[in-house]
Amino acid sequence: MGNVLIKNIKALCGVDESNRLLKKGKEMQEFTCIDNAWLWIKDGMIEEYGSMAELNLFADRFTHCKDMEIKDATGKYVLPSFVDSHTHMVFAKSREEEFVMRIKGKSYEEIAAAGGGILNSAAKLRAMSEHELMQGAYTRLLEVMKYGTGAIEIKSGYGLTFEDEIKMLRVIQQLKAVSPIEIKATFLGAHAIPMEYKNNRAEYINLVIDKMLPVVAGEGLADYFDVFCDQGFFTVDETDQLLTAASKYNIKAKIHGNELGVTGGVQVAVKHQALSVDHLEHIGEDEIHCLINSATMPVALPNCSFFLGLPYAPVRQMIDAGLPVCLATDYNPGSSPNGRMGFVISLACIQMKLTPEEALNAATINGAYALELSKTHGSISKGKVGNVFITKEIPSLAYLPYSFGVPSVETAIVKGNSIHVGF
Ligand code: NIG
Ligand code: FE
């Protein structure tokens, strides 16, 4: 838990003392900034902030704060850290051979149906020890923190046997124990039907429900439950059955839906009061209507559209209809081998026509909502966790998404401690 005073900040952005848990519709345009500001993080938490003109009023309180690092942020912006609410960051190996197959004309679904894709990742993961998986995932975690992520979700789903799903969740549990940032774990045993169950889907679903779920719940290995409800994966009826089973253990749902087709994923997620429904590359008026007045956060994963050549989720239309929208990386070896939230906000602005302010809200406070972390993360608010980042010297806030692919974070601060970024 560190103490840091950041002075002369060009603009301190994402300030919010309203205690709201999310922003929706027009509210997503508000990303309040204080020009020429300071920010004080004390014992790892946001203590005070204000404009430089008033800094002297706090001088007495600073003198009582021991071991305080003082940083000068002239020409630089300070923002709340990103909250990445959807990743598959525990995985064995990259899958660039499938990337080349897609370049040559095969589709993601064709590769998956032939035993590649998720099943390819599962075969590789089964051959790896907990220790090796932990090392890879920890390296990725530290890397994304340097790019400004200050809280993250990680899913299982590359095990697809009892032993290997539990192995993945234990790796996530170990990561939680050593991670400087908050991690939420999601059990995704229903990510794909393993080849050996291809002709007996019900048996695999029963395995998830009767064997995996009781252990996952009993040992507290997961915060959330996920199903890949889509064309070629799990049907709406199967998803319904799985979500009904998870609800008996009071595990909330976060669903993969409508990535590959208009399949009813949104409707089944809302029916089960899922915390979020993620992907949404294939949705229309019915899905938007269904999400309005629900507590389910729609999460868009533009990296996936970019990488697989899918349509982008119609988030402009969703925000204009009054909905909240969240953005996440979906960091995984198959559809998004990149965990940088900075690139996600660029894609959201360039391809989905979100304004920089909307994209930043989607990547901070709405990400926090999708992980039930809004009370502690996602905005510059007194009493929230001191996870922020200082940008390089940049001309404006819009420069962040504008300069796509260029890392703009100069210093990541986690619970008041600075992390050396070095790029
Ligand atoms: O969110 N769509 C399902 N699951 C992952 C991809 C998994 C993979 O291809 O390894 C996703 O895109
Ligand atoms: Fe995913």
In short:
By secondary structure, the chain is an alpha/beta fold. The protein contains 16 helices and 16 strands.
Descriptive overview:
The chain is an alpha/beta fold. The protein folds into 2 domains: 3-81 and 379-420, Urease, subunit C, domain 1, CATH 2.30.40; 83-369, Metal-dependent hydrolases (TIM Barrel), CATH 3.20.20.140. It has 16 helices and 16 strands. The chain has helices spanning 59-63, 96-103, 108-113, 118-126, 130-146, 162-178, 201-218, 236-247, 265-271, 285-291, 302-308, 315-320, 341-352, 356-363, 365-369, 399-402; strands at 3-13, 33-42, 45-51, 68-72, 76-80, 82-84, 149-155, 182-190, 224-229, 252-257, 276-279, 297-300, 326-327, 388-393, 409-414, 417-420. The strands form 2 sheets. Strands 1, 2, 3, 4, 5, 14, 15 and 16 form an 8-stranded mixed beta sheet that branches. The chain has an 8-stranded parallel beta sheet with strand order 6-7-8-9-10-11-12-13. Helix 5 (130-146) packs across helix 6, helix 7 (201-218) packs parallel to helix 8 (236-247) and helix 13 (341-352) packs across helix 14 (356-363). The longest helix has 18 residues, at 201-218. The model has no long low-confidence stretch (mean pLDDT 97). Residues 88, 117-118, 121, 228, 256, 259, 304, 330, 332-335 line the site of N-(iminomethyl)-L-glutamic acid.
Write the layout of secondary structure elements.
Elements: E1 3-13, E2 33-42, E3 45-51, H1 59-63, E4 68-72, E5 76-80, E6 82-84, H2 96-103, H3 108-113, H4 118-126, H5 130-146, E7 149-155, H6 162-178, E8 182-190, H7 201-218, E9 224-229, H8 236-247, E10 252-257, H9 265-271, E11 276-279, H10 285-291, E12 297-300, H11 302-308, H12 315-320, E13 326-327, H13 341-352, H14 356-363, H15 365-369, E14 388-393, H16 399-402, E15 409-414, E16 417-420
Parallel strand pairs: 1-4, 1-5, 6-7, 7-8, 8-9, 9-10, 10-11, 11-12, 12-13
Antiparallel strand pairs: 1-2, 2-3, 5-14, 14-15, 15-16
Helix pairs in contact: 5-6, 6-7, 7-8, 13-14
Bound molecules: N-(iminomethyl)-L-glutamic acid and fe (iii) ion.
